[in-house]
């Protein structure tokens, strides 16, 4: 207790102390036989009576003051709540309004001379749900839109005790906080953030060469005009950074508007026609929402790489949440120049010569393209005097015949290693060469990618969102028929020595991979594909023996026939079917069934599902008019525009079938818009 409080207590008890002193003095006088003592005692009794009466009077006055103050406060509170600009209402748990202020009444459109009391909140506001939470200390919030305004609703649940019977009732206090202007200010701030767009003309040199010389200036001028119009439309600063590349600095809002139009500039580019045999297509990479302009630029650059890796003729937009893709519906065209293959080949030769340990792997459940390419790289290593190993854990029927022939040939002795041995071999300096996939989760043994710092990727699939990072060498060409074609060109052009030879069985494996991915030279077959096949034929590849790699069992034909019989046709152009039979090579059977379904008249695409263990395989095929890659990407798959697939884990085949069917129907609906 401080001195101030002590002084207050002394003053408060001062009257009693004085009476006590007089009383003690009077007792002393009476004891001394002095009549003054009697008078003093009488005075003490009188003073005590007067003090008690005065204090009672003071207490009554204080009570009156407190009561008047309470009444005044209640009046002030009511007046304040009625006139406060924040809409406020009290509700029963059934939604009935028991009290509301003027701001709430005005908000819901009730005149000042009327009241909302007794009305139900849902009849006034619409679809609003009161939370059944009876915790008086908890406030619940939610966003709500009413008459074009955005509100933050705060609910406070309060317990009201009934003194008559001791029961408890509950009321809801609802606060309406108008956030319309705040949200608009935030949106304006976001819309004006910087964004970067990079536009690259696909195969510009080839397009110019395919155009009559006298019309090339007109073609170039038309492209410049189209880019300039894009800059004007988006209020951008446009800079030409190369003969075939432009960079645009704009606001985030402009990128979102382009996304709403699904980048219609992609279609406008294809309309440019000045006698060019090859169409004009753009690859666009955009970035926004970076913490700095540098990060936004990195987003745009990465998005452009993604667009190019997926075949061009599309826009890829990246922010912190990931990628969005637009376009990508046209086929990529073949590049006739082999300069890239030669440069990649020389770089690969140097990496092989610098490596003491080399591991090669394809994707899980390898097919002939993956296995043929892996054996081709193995033979390439042997030509440079380096021993290599191909990582393979399980042998599927799709490569069973080829693998058995490899194991019978002493040239490939000890070539294969399982996962356990590969892990023992692999260290930071081991050269790990991945073929026919660029997705970490799809590789034969993903753990090797973490063990090695020297990874090479050779693949021809359209790039997915997840891909192997930090490669020392990347050979990614989506316009070629197969990875085996790419490896064949590396063998052809990796050295100036024209006497490089590969084993006859290696050549047959490479040719088998080309056979598989081109469907016997029917799909994605260009001039370079036939040149690669010719080279392999010169290396001794026997086409009859290659055909035997694809021989099937009789039961496979029965399963395929059952799949075809069960086929459902959607929109008269797309087939979808499935197999209930769980066979080891179900992925091969459904792929063959999907190919077969394309032979039906007017059918442009086919989808077939099959189950093996806890995995549902989806095989998608197209004649080129429908982009099955985009559709398979929606369920975590990928591939090419006309050949794609996906694998679904821990899902029933009926649910998977309905999922794929819904994707097909959504695709058709979007195309009809």
Provide a concise account of the structure shown:
This protein is α/β, with parallel strands linked by helices. The protein folds into 5 domains: 3-66; 84-185, Beta-Lactamase (2-Layer Sandwich), CATH 3.30.450.20; 194-327, Reverse transcriptase/Diguanylate cyclase domain (Alpha-Beta Plaits); 339-548, inorganic pyrophosphatase (n-terminal core), CATH 3.90.1640; 555-672, Diaminopimelate Epimerase, Chain A, domain 1, CATH 3.10.310. Helix content is 45%, strand content 21%.
CATH fold node name of the largest domain = inorganic pyrophosphatase (n-terminal core)
Task: Count the beta strands.
Answer: 23
CATH superfamily of the largest domain: inorganic pyrophosphatase (n-terminal core)
Main pleated sheet: 6 strands, mixed
The number of distinct helices, counting runs of at least 4 residues, comes to 24
As an assembly, this protein is single chain
Taken together, the total number of domains comes to 5
The helix content, as a percent range, equals: 40-55%
What are the low-pLDDT stretches, counting only 5+ consecutive residues below 50? 132-136
Cα gyration radius (Å): 42 Å
Q: Residue-averaged pLDDT, rounded?
A: 84
Keywords: Cell membrane, Coiled coil, Hydrolase, Membrane, Transmembrane, Transmembrane helix
Coiled coil: 52-79
Domain DHHA1: 584-665
Pfam families: DHH, DHHA1, GGDEF_GdpP
């Amino acid at each position: 207790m401080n001195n101030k409080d002590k002084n207050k207590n002394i003053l408060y008890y001062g009257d009693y102390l004085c009476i006590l002193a007089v009383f003690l003095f009077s007792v002393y006088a009476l004891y001394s036989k002095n009549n003054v003592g009697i008078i003093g005692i009488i005075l003490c009794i009188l003073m005590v009576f007067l003090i008690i009466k005065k204090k009672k009077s003071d207490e009554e006055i204080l009570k009156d003051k407190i009561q008047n103050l309470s009444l005044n406060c209640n009046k002030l509170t009511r007046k304040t709540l009625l006139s406060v600009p924040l809409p406020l209402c009290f509700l029963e748990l059934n939604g009935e309004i028991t009290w509301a202020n003027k701001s709430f009444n005005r908000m819901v459109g009730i005149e000042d001379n009327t009241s909302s009391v007794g009305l139900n909140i849902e009849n006034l506001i619409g679809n609003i749900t009161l939370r059944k939470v009876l915790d008086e200390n908890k406030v619940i919030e939610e966003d709500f839109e009413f008459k074009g305004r955005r509100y933050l609703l705060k609910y406070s649940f309060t317990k009201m005790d009934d003194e008559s019977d001791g029961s408890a009732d509950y009321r809801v206090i609802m606060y309406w906080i108008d956030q319309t202007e705040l949200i608009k200010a935030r949106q304006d701030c976001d819309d004006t953030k910087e964004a970067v767009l990079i536009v690259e003309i696909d195969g510009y040199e080839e397009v110019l060469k395919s155009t009559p010389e006298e019309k090339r200036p007109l073609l170039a001028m038309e492209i410049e005009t189209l880019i300039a119009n894009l800059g004007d439309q988006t209020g951008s600063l446009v800079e030409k950074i190369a003969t075939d590349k432009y960079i645009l600095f704009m606001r985030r809002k402009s990128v979102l508007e382009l996304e709403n139009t699904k980048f219609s500039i992609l279609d406008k580019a294809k309309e440019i026609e000045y006698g060019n045999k090859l169409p004009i297509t753009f690859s666009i990479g955009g970035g926004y929402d970076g913490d700095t302009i540098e990060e936004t630029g990195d987003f745009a650059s990465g998005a452009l790489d993604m667009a190019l890796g997926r075949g061009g003729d599309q826009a890829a937009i990246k922010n912190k949440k990931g990628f969005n893709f637009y376009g990508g519906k046209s086929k990529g065209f073949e590049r006739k120049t082999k300069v890239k293959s030669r440069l990649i080949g020389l770089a690969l030769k140097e990496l092989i010569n610098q490596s003491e340990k080399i591991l090669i792997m394809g994707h899980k459940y390898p097919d002939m393209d993956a296995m043929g390419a892996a054996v081709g790289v193995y033979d390439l290593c042997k030509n440079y005097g380096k021993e290599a190993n191909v990582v393979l854990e399980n042998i599927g029927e799709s490569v069973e015949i080829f693998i058995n022939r490899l194991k019978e040939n002493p040239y490939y002795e000890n070539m294969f290693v399982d996962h356990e041995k590969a892990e023992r071999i692999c260290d930071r300096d081991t050269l790990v060469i991945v073929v026919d996939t660029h997705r970490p989760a799809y590789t034969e043994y993903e753990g090797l990618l973490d063990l090695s710092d020297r990874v090479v990727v050779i693949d021809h699939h359209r790039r997915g969102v997840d891909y192997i990072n930090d490669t020392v060498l990347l050979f990614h060409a989506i316009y070629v028929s197969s990875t085996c074609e790419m490896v064949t060109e590396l063998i052809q052009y990796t050295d100036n020595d024209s006497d490089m030879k590969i084993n006859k069985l290696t050549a047959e494996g490479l040719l088998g991979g080309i056979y598989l991915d081109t469907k016997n030279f029917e799909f994605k077959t260009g001039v370079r594909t036939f040149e690669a096949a010719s080279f392999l034929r010169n290396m001794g590849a026997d086409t009859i023996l290659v055909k035997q790699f694809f021989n099937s069992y009789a039961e496979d034909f029965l399963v395929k026939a059952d799949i075809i019989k069960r086929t459902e046709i959607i929109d008269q152009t797309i087939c979808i079917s499935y197999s209930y039979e769980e066979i080891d090579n179900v992925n091969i059977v459904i792929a063959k069934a999907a190919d077969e379904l394309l032979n039906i008249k007017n059918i442009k695409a086919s989808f077939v599902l099959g189950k093996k263990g806890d995995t549902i395989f989806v095989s998608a095929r197209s004649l080129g008019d429908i982009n099955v890659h985009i559709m398979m990407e929606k369920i975590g798959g990928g591939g090419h525009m006309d050949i794609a697939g996906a694998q679904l884990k821990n899902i029933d085949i009926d649910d998977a079938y309905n999922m794929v069917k819904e994707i097909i129907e959504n695709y058709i609906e979007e195309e009809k818009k």
